[in-house]
Design a protein that fits this description.
It is a single chain. The chain is mainly alpha-helical. It has a domain of about 35 residues. The chain has two helices and no strands. The chain is rod-shaped. About 0% of the residues are buried. InterPro entries: MetI-like_sf. It is a multi-pass membrane protein.
């Protein structure tokens, strides 16, 4: 039974990383919308941001 307890302890950090990746993936579009809402419409529509390399 000791082996399964060790495996469970090793799996905890893996699940923590997986959870954080999922949280970031779900939060990123919301953060992008909030940050974009502070721009003017023309600034928000410009792609790519900043000076064009062409």
């Amino acid at each position: 039974m000791r082996g399964s307890a060790d495996a469970a302890q090793r799996a905890k950090p893996v699940w923590a990383v997986v959870t954080w990746v999922i949280v970031v993936l779900f939060f990123a579009p919301v953060a992008w919308m909030v940050l974009t809402s502070f721009h003017t419409e023309s600034d928000a529509a410009r792609n790519p941001r900043g000076r064009s390399p062409v």
